[in-house]
Amino acid sequence: MKTIKQALLGATSAFVLFVAAPNLAKADELTLCWAAWDPANALVELSKDFTSQSGTTMKFEFVPWPNFADRILNELNSGGKLCDLLIGDSQWLGGSAENGYYVKLNDFFDKEGIKMSDFADAAVNAYATWPKGTPNYWALPAMGDANAWFYRKDWFAQPEIQAEFKKKYNRDLAAPTTWDELLEVAEFFNGREIDGKKVYGAAIFTERASEGITMGATSALYPYGFKYENTPGKYDMEGAVNSPEAVAGLEAYKKLYKCCTPPGYTDAYMGESLDAFKSGQVAMAMNWFAFFPGLYKDEKVGGDKIGFFVNPKEKVAASTLGGQGISVVANTDNMDGALAYIKWFAQPDVQKKWWSLGGYAVHKTVLNDPTFTESQPFAADFLVAMNQVQDFWQEPSYAILLQAMQKRLHDYVVADKGTAKEALDGLVKDWTEVFKDDGKL
Amino acid sequence: MTARIRKRTGQFFRMRRFKTQVKSVTHTSSTILGEAVARATPVPIASRIRGLSDRSMAWLFITPAIALLLAVNIFPLIWAIYLSFTNFRANRPNAALENVGLSNYSRVLNDPNIWQAMQTTAHFVFWTILLQTLIGFSLAYLIDRKFRGHAFWTTIILVPMMLSPAVVGNFWRFLYQPQIGLFNHIVSFLTGIPPSSFEMLGSVRLSPWAIIIVDTWMWTPYVMLICLAGLRSIPDYIYEAAEVDRASLWRQFWSITLPMALPFIMLAVLFRGIENFKMFDMVTLLTGGGPGSTTEVASITLKREAFESWRTGRASAFAIILFVAVFGLANIYVKALNKVKQR
What we know:
By secondary structure, chain A is of the alpha/beta class. Chain A contains 20 helices and 13 strands. In chain A, 49% of the residues lie in helices and 13% in strands.
């Protein structure tokens, strides 16, 4: 009888442990989802401090950029429990807020004394609020970012190249400050032989599947004067999206693509841009600030050989916004742990360390530090860029809007279909249909 | 000549007599064996379990398979049909679900992008099937000759088919790379055109053909295998009789080989047609549907509609239209295939 009792007790204990163990483990564990790129590695390093202070084990789910939106949005839509915390793209805010995927953080911020005024205004607006312009916070600004440029400083400094450029364009060869200059410099370098190797003008974004060509082309469209609406919030796109300025911007981007990109550069995004630059194929390349610390450290093309510049202006100064805020996923089983991480991450000291490790903190303590602009060779450009960023639609229907733009731009820029005006007219038509479906028009 | 014909005819009749004898012996021995097995077999298990007939047992065994089929095939199909009449979006689960009638179907059928994708698909299916059938049958015909080392060459030819489409897509991307790709350099060597002067995957004119080349390279061996099975199923004596009738090789091919292998060729065309109609992985890896939408086949458009734009209702309508089209065409084709087999 005693043996049977012991056996029953043992079995019951085993059953209880079996059922409870996953939950116990869960309580001490947080999964943070983000894209797989350089800053993610910095965040892993940074989060070790959180683990040592709180005892919470941090798990990370990093998805490569081309699949990031697909993978994570599928997860959110299906009510999955993979992520407790999510550093999601700014464009997801509208949908995730309206569909209840993110936790609204206003009460939590008030309770914990976290002030949004401590973060850069542009970052708060872009990464945290929905609807835009309202103090409804769904994320804490985590990673400031914008599209910018880097170039082969060592090539630019070669006396014979400088002399030839001056002779041809009657000005000194330097990092471009306008799109006209950018096109000239790209044309100048394209096809030139440097160090016994044929090089090309520039590596730009042309990727079709996710967001590449939109992020690249808007870096030309915004400075030329492209606007999403004539009146913000009215969805009146005719004459804004397809304005003569927008047409000129798109034509400039196509001109740069046709003239000066390496052969086979028809479906290129972040990785391809970095590869083209690191392999010494191009004189200039566009990419997100997030990659700049890694580029600067690169043994072959970094250090003195690399220079950085903010996206050139044309009619106006503008940069395409990147970056993300960190949100708590409403479906999490570990709400307290997730909120504790946000509270910890918002601390000024943590933000300072975040910047030192290669993350782009947008906390004013970091940005307003007198030593900030000197802390990295691209820090001053980052500040400039963050003050002139423009973002894509953050509407709940952003995915449809993005797909339409990807198609129209790729058809025109890469596949040579129609004119820039026709592409943008088509885009107005596509977007109008989407907003009509949403009941906003 | 007459003696040769007489000899061949004699061989033919001797062979038939032999086959008849073998059949008779096989029949007698199988009858004896069958009786022995019946005596040794215990009473069926079903009859020993009270209330469970053989029929019930049969149902018991196939129920899990049917349940699985209903769960993963039939239910999603019915659900998709239902969703195709609604405004459902998978990324807005909390939004009110409205019945939109035939609106999704009407929008899909009036969408020029969808028709463009269907045209791209038709172009891809037509050329891949044509090339794969011609090359596959030719290879099978050659392999069937049983020349020296044919087993080795058969294995070599079959290798592409054994690779994963993901691997094939990736390495052909490298082969097509304009600066370092082997394909461009071979073309350059043969024609004198500089390798970097053309882009197989980036050119509107060439990219559809780039995909057709890869698919043909990969799946021709599959068509070859089926055709080879067809060729090997043709009895030798028919050719022998044709030779007796002094039929030329061309006549033998036209009157014996092709008609008798035709059901197999048609079967290969059916399999490849269905597969290529839903082609997704290789196109995604090679071009992602680009440049622009040049190689955007129907399955990629469907995926974008369903999982990137999240217009689930409209995507369901498109999926149903594709399903009906493939199902209808396949049915017509199978009927034609049966007629050919019955000839």
